[in-house]
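Board notes (copied after class):
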Amino acid sequence: MEIIESVYLDEKLEIVRDIDFLQYRSQDLPTWCPGCGYFGIVDAFYKACRELALKHEDIVTVSGIGCSGRTPIFVNSYGFHTLHGRSIPVASGLKLAREDLTVFAVAGDGDALGIGGGHLPHVARKNINITFLLFDNSIYGLTKGQSSSTTPYEMRTNSHPAGNPDTPLNPIKLALSYGASFVARGYAGDPQGLKQIIKDGILHQGFSFIQILTPCVTFDKENRTWKNLKENVYDLNLRKEEKNMETAMRMAENEPYGIGIFFQDRQRPHYQEILRNK
């Protein structure tokens, strides 16, 4: 039995080496909790980079703090692990200084929409050509399970054991309202579908906002669990002509589970184009 298992693993490892599957992964092993959705997110991220044949030296991944803040450590590229809520301004500065780079900003729901929430409207209105990945598990995981900006009303957390008294933010509606030229939502449990959304976001010329639904398996046992997500996530199936602001806002209203591209404006110039024409 042990010999058969060893041969099987050897064969699988050969397949992985042949397709160079791990070329975008660093030598550091991820330190997220077993079962965390972030593994699916970075898997989709690696695949998107590989299918677009992005060069390691041309990628920069910028993060804030929290569990998502570790992401640059696990990517075989340049990276910044910055201050709380500051991944977007740092990523924006990088892109403005080095337009040739493919720049990603990464943040959790608390990091991006709490202390960092003031940066989102400005990168959206300027339409700076970066891709923003919002790891949204609706809770502060690294600091042990407090309510975040997207925690549902009345959900019990370690900071609100009697129930969260705050109304949650709607990330998709925020991005649309602020004028992001690419707005989409993916799901950590669907790495293949998420890979395509990330690829579309990278190829989009302008600010790409991608909310990614993911569970926190350690501190959320009742709301955004794998079971809950699996039962409720569905494909938006919007046709190209339907990806307009009116349809997108209607789909985003009180709608937390549809995945796909809500809105895309391919005609709007990104910030670097505007500056070159000044």
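Comment from the instructor: The chain has ten helices and eight strands. The longest helix spans residues 2-18.
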